[in-house]
Amino acid sequence: MTSRGAGTAFSRKNYRLSTEPEKSKVTGMGLYALCKSRTSSSWRHSSGVLINPAQLSLTGFFATLVSDQVAEGRLGPSTVVLDHTSGFEGLLLVDDDLLGVIGHSNFGSIRATTCVYKGKWIYEVLISSQGLMQIGWCTLNCRFNQEEGVGDTPDSYAYDGNRVRKWNVTTTNYGKEGKLVEKDTSMWQLQGEPTVLITLAHIFNYFSPLMCKVYLVEDVLMTFLLSILERGGAVDAHPLIQQLLDLMWLLMEEYEVHECLKQLLMSLLRAYRFSPIIPDLGLQIHYLRLTIAVLKHEKSRKYLLSNVLFDVLRSVVFFYIKSPLRVEEAGLQELIPTTWWPNRFTKEGKESKEVKEESAEERLRRRAYERGCQRLKKRIEVVEGLQVQILKLLLNNKDRGGGEASRYIFLNKFRKFLQENASNRGNLTVLCPPEYMVCFLHRLIAALRFFWDGHKAKTPAALSSEEAYIPPQLFYNGKVDYFDLQRLGGLLSHLKKTLKDDLAAKANVLIDPAELQAVTMDDLDEDEESATSAAQRPSAALAIGGALARPGWLSSPTLGRANRFLSTAAVSLMNPRRPLGTLEKIKVRTLSVEQRTEEDIEGSHGNEGLLLGRPPEEPDQPITENSLLEILDGIVMMYNLSVHQQLGKMVGVSDDVNEYAMALKDTEEKISRCPKRRRDIHEELLKSQKVFSEKLNHLSRRLAWINVTIYSKEKMQDIYWLLRVCIRTIEHGDRTGSLFAFMPEFYLSVAMNSYSALKNYFSPVNSMEELPGYEETLMRLAAILAKHFADSRIVGTDIRDSLMQALASYVCYPHSLRAVERIPEEQRISMMKNLLAPYEQRPWAQTNWILVRLWRGCGFGYRYTRLPHLLKTKPEDASLPSLQKPCPSTLLQRHMADLLRSDRDLAPSFLNSVLNQLNWAFSEFIGMIQEIQQAAERLERNFVDSRQLKVCATCFDLSVSLLRVLEMTVTLAPEIFLDWNRPSSELLLRRLAQLLNQVLNRVTAERNLFDRVVNLRLPGLESVDHYPILVAVTGILVRLLVDTDRATAVLLADPCFQLRSIQYLLGHAEPLALAAAAPATDKRHFSLHTYTEYISAEELAKVDKMLSHLSEESKQAAATTLPTSEEDLCPICYAHPISAIFRPCSHKSCKACINQHLMNNKDCFFCKATITGVDDFTKPPTTATSSAALPGS
């Protein structure tokens, strides 16, 4: 090597001299020059490596053979050093180890100790200083002086990187037309000739520090790279970007490359995020293409994944397609010149009652609008395709060269990303915006299914993505981090303690008893494992060859916090596919996300990785690559965190379109009715019409964008696929028995929420009924809801309430109700039995609403979709509360009747619960309306709390629904009340009669409290009126009284019975009341006859017959009743004669009082003695003829 000038140096570095077929290995740091030469006839004679360092500093030169064996074509020692004995002139300072040299003369040269004469050879030099220098080959015949060095003689050849010229006595340019460097196969060359890259080394030496500056990266480097891609074509058609990245990693310091790549990605993300939306989305496409080109470079991709994409950047932005703030910004007026909006739909996508033919003009507008939406969709699909390509690069698991594959780096970062969003749900600065999460979820699903089906193509025995699910062992083997998310059975630490035997028996998972006492790893000793724990694991140590006690770092607080999701159990798993001896148990410790390797995830050599601990119920069949299972699990979690919420939020645009369309239609109707003489009103209406039309034009175009990016058919299929994944996962988990409790709650939540989204958010644009397997999916989800709403393995209050509400919603709609009816009969009967279980054991209100919805459409006057009294008082109000059309289930009603008849214990417990809750709900309602009335009567202006009004209305609605459940029970199984051979029938009938009389008396009294509050018409109490509650009571009375005398006698015997209350139902008043009210006014009384649209003539006839029957029976009862002395009346109620005597204290009361008292208390009313039995009592006293055993005694 020859060097002119001062200040140039080579830094110390190891070099290897090798033949070309072998890969040269570069070690050390800094800039270096690479010299590669093909030996030919002109170089066949012996030649040596030569360095000529005049006025330059060399601090390292070293070369070794690749192999210890002597290679053909090479002469010299195996270790190459500088030859300081001969061949150089001038002032040179050589290091003692002969590995570095510093030259101070004008032109000095030095040789190495090895020569080559045949073949192709390469050697490397690290240049650590600047200056003019030449490097090359020479023969032993060369003689150098201060004026001539390597390249200046006929027997030498050199390259001058400073001037980009080659030397062999004469000099020529090395490279043509500015095309300095290109890559041909595995070697760098200049215009097809092998060369060193000293020139590039100089370039990068000057510019590397600048390439770390953000303004230069964004303005120069990114612009240059974008210009490369502007030529068009696929990203792969522009290899120059890959070659440039190769050079950066080759010629720049690593910290400089890292900073440059970080700034480049940050610049790309900013540009993508803030670039304006243009009609063809060209800017977004341009930036995404460059991102793909950068990520195609393996080494750059792995660095960015490990250190930048999730750690420094919010890289999810790359997968987001932002909505334009203004329609003009995105050019939507050009894409969608014709706007259209539906004008015959109601809220929640329900069909309008008035179905009219679409006019020709509307049809043309709609079709033009749909064509515009298709044009927009095609352009957005291009962007979505590029975003999916980015994820495919990040999920590549074949790039294992130089370290861990990209997919496993992504997995660890993705899990941390989920943890941040799950653990900081109240910190908006940390959370990923929901609109980003929606787009990220859809792109991730597309990439995941691509790799899943690719694996299926290679492994036919594996499952396709259409059959995807998460195996249950992921939830309890500790291989996947679920952070602090709730499990179905409660806290994980508690489950591992209570279900440790089941884990051992079913999944071969053994929990260390000594460590079950700790709740988290933070509670363990930080230094060493306790002697007790070590003594309890001798077999595990012997299994790995007497291995080592647990290292201290496993107990560190840092690892403990990272692993808090798995309590502290040390988990041992046995391979379930072959029996293991006691000395073969595999000791498995839970690793943090950072410590996991590919083997920990995918498994190898009998280790199943994420699938360790397979239960016997799980089929022994490959599903897919384990890493894809973890990504799928993360997708389900991501939907639960924020995606569902965002899907519901964006429906607001559709609601706005609906409201403006209704306002526009109303304005147009007013214009048509406006008198011609009122020009002022007509002009104002025309202005309003213009405003509404402009707003609708804007919203319809914005809605088109939202429908394409969020509610398109493809997005709907993604959510539907996710729903089916959750259903299959729940089904597989359910088969594991008690281990089902380990499943995270969010799987059930996502199953319910995704179905709700498909039903409510995507329609009417896309219909769920068009999805493949729709009916089967509905049935399987119905089976899950029917089984698990009362599942004892599920302990969380919130998830149990959600299941109950989902089932209540499910039975409201005909399609989903029919799905419930299609589940196996055993599951249907079990569901109805759980619904009839005593209400005290669970939320009774939700259970009651489910039963009511199964009955609505069959009850007395119970076929309305909107409350009839509201339609009478405010028929023009478009915001009236709307109910679903009645869709009763006679099949489930039959199951309910069979259960109540066959189970003599179930019926009384169920009905007592209903009666208790009715008594509570109606009493609360009366107490609240008393407070409301008192506030309204005060002189000072008082405002009633809206929350109090809401609670009051809720208590009223509960009372009505409980009465409807009683009506359903009386109609389906009347013998429960009327067959007195049943031990509890008489008591149930008397309690029912007492409550019905109380309700009637409170509601039907003239100018009573109920009337006054109803007439106030307070907002929030719209549902409170006579009709809902009186028709429910009437339905019960009609069924009990029309054909049975026993029920009539019980009703008339109740001291609260008033015939006037029954007459009130038909608008009849007592003669005295009519006489008193004659001079008054023509006040209209409530009457069932005014609701003929909702009550049939047959039902009204039954009410007339009931009134006549009660009138006649009450007259006869009054004529035959003998006066009773006070001594003979029950001392508790003073309404019935004494008919029961208690043992052993002999106190007395009527049977109704003592039977009702004994349901809750066994102490005597009077002396508090424990009652052991009740005997019949008649006057005069006689020996007891019968004895009633005390329930439970």
TrEMBL record:
Alphabetized InterPro entries for the sequence: B30.2/SPRY_sf, ConA-like_dom_sf, RNF123/RKP/RSPRY1, SPRY_dom, TPR_RNF123/RKP, Znf_RING, Znf_RING/FYVE/PHD
GO biological process, one term: protein ubiquitination
Region (Disordered): 597-619
Substrates-to-products reaction catalysed: S-ubiquitinyl-[E2 ubiquitin-conjugating enzyme]-L-cysteine + [acceptor protein]-L-lysine = [E2 ubiquitin-conjugating enzyme]-L-cysteine + N(6)-ubiquitinyl-[acceptor protein]-L-lysine
GO cellular component: cytoplasm
Database matches in SUPFAM superfamilies: Concanavalin A-like lectins/glucanases (SSF49899), RING/U-box (SSF57850)
Pfam families: SPRY (PF00622), TPR_RNF123 (PF25576), zf-C3HC4_3 (PF13920)
Domain RING-type: 1130-1168
GO molecular function, one term: ubiquitin protein ligase activity
Keyword vocabulary terms for this entry: Metal-binding, Transferase, Ubl conjugation pathway, Zinc, Zinc-finger
Record keyword Transferase present: yes
EC nos: 2.3.2.27
PANTHER family referenced in this protein's UniProt entry, alphabetically: E3 UBIQUITIN-PROTEIN LIGASE RNF123, RING FINGER AND SRY DOMAIN-CONTAINING
Protein name: RING-type E3 ubiquitin transferase
The species this protein was found in: Calidris pygmaea (Spoon-billed sandpiper)
